[in-house]
């Protein structure tokens, strides 16, 4: 690997920690999740791809203050996936390596194994390439196969930069107001109408994200 690329994860992690320490964060819905954290019942979190930057830092903070569990995130077996795995690991996150090609079968198998082992997982269901704000079918299949409930996670900051990328990637400004909102847990039965479930999860994630946006705009 290019030595300069190898420096990217530790530098990015350091900058995110410094940025996070300046944020005026408000979190809602934590009390709802505490029983699952205490009982070590696995959860599946979902957050839109454009809002993922601070998620590793947020998980580390919640583990210290509220007893949240370490979350496993998906990273491909590619070089870029290795960089993501290195970055996530610097916040104490576990990494599930799996291919998202050929319909995501490899990634789904890896995530099913993680959840069945009792681990929480977090996904960006419109990643890695979009369309933005459109929830893919993989998270529905994961929830139906494992029985683990899905928790929508909305994050917002103001002021913040929005990059000219497909996902309108958001980077909070230093000392910004920030909000983390956990939406209602949703379980999906094996025999559920998966398209209907997909639409309901998509709506729930939109609502959690909109709630976070409102909190930082008030």
At a glance:
With 218 residues, the chain is α/β, with parallel strands linked by helices.
SSE sequence, one letter per element: HEHEHEHEHEHEEH
pLDDT averaged residue by residue: 92
Please identify the oligomeric state: single chain
What is the CA-atom radius of gyration, in angstroms? 16 Å
Number of helices: 7
Number of strands: 7
Q: What separation lies between the terminal Cα atoms?
A: 46 Å
* CATH hierarchy, class: Alpha Beta
CATH superfamily grouping: Glycerol-3-phosphate (1)-acyltransferase
Query: How are the strands of the largest sheet arranged?
Result: 1-7-6-2-5-3-4
Largest sheet: 7 strands, mixed
Shape: globular
What report would you give on this structure?
- The chain is α/β, with parallel strands linked by helices and 218 residues long.
- It has a single domain, classed as Glycerol-3-phosphate (1)-acyltransferase.
- Helix content is 45%, strand content 22%.
- The chain is built from seven helices and seven strands, in the order αβαβαβαβαβαββα.
- Strands 1-7-6-2-5-3-4 form a seven-stranded mixed sheet.
- A hairpin with a 7-residue loop joins strand 6 and strand 7.
- Helix 1 packs parallel to helix 4 and helix 5 packs parallel to helix 6.
- It starts with a helix and ends with a helix.
- The mean pLDDT is 92.
């Amino acid at each position: 690997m290019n030595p300069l690329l190898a420096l990217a994860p530790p530098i990015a992690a350091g900058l995110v920690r410094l940025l996070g320490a300046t944020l005026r964060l408000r979190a809602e819905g934590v009390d709802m999740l505490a029983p699952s954290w205490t009982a070590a019942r696995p959860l599946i979190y979902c957050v839109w791809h454009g809002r993922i930057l601070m998620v590793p830092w947020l998980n580390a903070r919640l583990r210290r203050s509220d007893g949240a569990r370490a979350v496993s995130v998906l990273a491909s077996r590619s070089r870029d996936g290795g960089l993501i795995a290195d970055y996530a690991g610097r916040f104490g996150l576990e990494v599930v390596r799996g291919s998202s090609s050929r319909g995501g079968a490899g990634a789904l198998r890896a995530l099913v194994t993680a959840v069945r082992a009792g681990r929480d997982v977090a996904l960006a269901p419109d990643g890695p390439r979009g369309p933005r704000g459109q929830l893919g079918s993989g998270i529905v299949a994961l929830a139906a196969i494992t029985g683990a409930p899905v928790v929508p996670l909305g994050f917002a900051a103001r002021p913040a930069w929005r990059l000219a990328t497909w996902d309108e990637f958001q980077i909070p400004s230093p000392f910004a107001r920030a909000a983390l909102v956990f939406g209602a847990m949703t379980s999906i039965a094996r025999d559920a109408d998966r398209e209907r479930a997909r639409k309901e999860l998509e709506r729930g994630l939109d609502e959690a994200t909109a709630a976070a946006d409102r909190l930082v705009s008030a």
